[in-house]
Amino acid sequence: METHSSSSSFSTLQSYLKALAQTPRRLARRAPSVSSSYEELSRVKARSGSDMQRTLRWFDLVGLGIGGMVGAGVFVTTGRASRLYAGPAIVVSYAIAGLCALLSAFCYTEFAVHMPVAGGAFSYLRITFGEFAAFLTGANLITEYVMSNAAVSRGLTSYMGAAMGISTTKWRFILPLLPNGFNEIDLVASAIVLILTLVICYSTRESSVVNMILTTLHILFIAFLILMGLWKGDWNNFTHPGNPQHPSGFFPYGASGVFNGAAMVYLSYIGYDAVSTMAEEVRDPVKDIPIGVSGSVIIVTILYCLMAASMSMLLPYDMIDVEAPFSAAFSGRSELVARVIGVGASFGILTSLLVAMLGQARYMCVIGRSNVVPAWFARVHPKTSTPVNASAFLGIFTAAIALFTDLNILLNLVSIGTLFVFYMVSNAVIYRRYVMVGTTKPWPTLSFLCLFSLTSTIFTLVWHFTPPGKPKPFLLGACVVIAISILQVFHCMVPQARKPAFWGVPFMPWLPSISIFLNVFLLGSLDGPSYVRFGFFSALAVLVYVLYSVHASFDAEIDGSMGQKNVEIVEESKQSEEEEDPSQKV
């Protein structure tokens, strides 16, 4: 049995070396340890000191969701997906991608209503799959938030320059002493990040107001863009390519092109998950969160479909510019419209940056509450009721990266960590419905989740790597039949262990299973460097967990159990005193 003194594992070098020697035992104890909803809402939440104020309503969440999703992505992915994959059927691709996002949003909503805390996916996985799985996904999420926010802030300066007709070389300068890729200094990008950091540190409510103003302006810009496209466009472009030798019709590349296009444009929907991190600051979680999360996804889907239709009417699909489809579509038609596109894109990028910075700070705050990173990050300021420490640290870190590093704006589109978390949350909502510790056995549910994920992976590999021919449709059809059979057997054989008290994903386990399949399929559409980067950051997160987090978490567990024992001793002492002296009873 491992002994533990009152001193921390990090108090002295000798204590730390002794703790490292106990790493295997501590990993076995802490890595699979599962928290409970009650602990997350009470004891764990109390570690932040002050509470976050519940000031947000459903319309604030809708605004934050729209602001988080409608960034630079739609202005880049639409042209590439239409030109290379879907053609005019890019409208259908956006509708399919929106359905996928809505299914994942349902899974987030069930957890957020049941447990309205600021941790988002980290907290959901911690009460389902344990501390290590939550830490691994949380670390990847925060890493991608910081990296993509730095990239987006530098991209914002490019769009601002285009809107004002000023080259970015006017405010970026070169430091020859630094290596290439790190020598182009962008003070404006860093200043934007620091200003937004001050806003989110000051007040969540004021941050929501700023986001609502910017999002409203952005939606007005999108409406202007749609109307101009419908007015100046030609309906014949939906079916006739510019080059008669290219495939024609509304579906020039068939069903496979539509789904490949959906896989690409789905990344334009990433951002709604940040809304779930605001659950702790929502006035009425049961009512506001479902409307806010699902409503924002539905509105954005409609906007994206209309934008895609507008672009398809302006130009035949084979003449659309891959890099800047909307700007190129209006070039030569109206200089004013081209400038408006630059201004509107700047608003969109700014709102997505604001929402992402709100989300990353709340993720870090709740990770700090769990003691796997220093508890300093968990502190909520008593006056502003915001996680000031986490917001300031990540804001300064993001500004430093944006200052030196020449990150491509497309980095925020390659969000393998975010897709991985969507996949994990979809698994978690099924596991939590069908498994109750001490009441039901987990193996039937775990077996189903593993088999279904394996079948989805095989389908994805066949779809992407098998050459066209007769065997391919047969293999794909076989995978679909096997997946449906596995799902139906599980649905008939394994009863649900718990029912949601307030709001739950409908048609369980069908909708979350479809979400699992779609996320696996989308993960398979990403490029090799994305997986290399994901593997690198995952390995780094595991190293941090083994060298620091598991020991800090173990210390907190022992200190907490000792404190609990002391409370029980005091209560037993009081009870015995009352039994000895009945006059003390009230």
Automatic annotation (TrEMBL):
InterPro entries: AA/rel_permease1, CAT_C. It is a multi-pass membrane protein. Keywords: Membrane, Transmembrane, Transmembrane helix. The chain crosses the membrane at residues 58-78, 84-109, 121-142, 185-202, 209-231, 251-272, 293-316, 336-359, 386-404, 410-431, 443-462, 474-494, 501-524, 530-548. It is found in: Membrane. It comes from the Eukaryota. One of its GO terms (cellular component) is plasma membrane. Residues 503-553 form the Cationic amino acid transporter C-terminal domain. One of its GO terms (molecular function) is amino acid transmembrane transporter activity. Belongs to the amino acid-polyamine-organocation (APC) superfamily. Cationic amino acid transporter (CAT) (TC 2.A.3.3) family. This is Cationic amino acid transporter C-terminal domain-containing protein. It comes from Gossypium tomentosum (Hawaiian cotton).
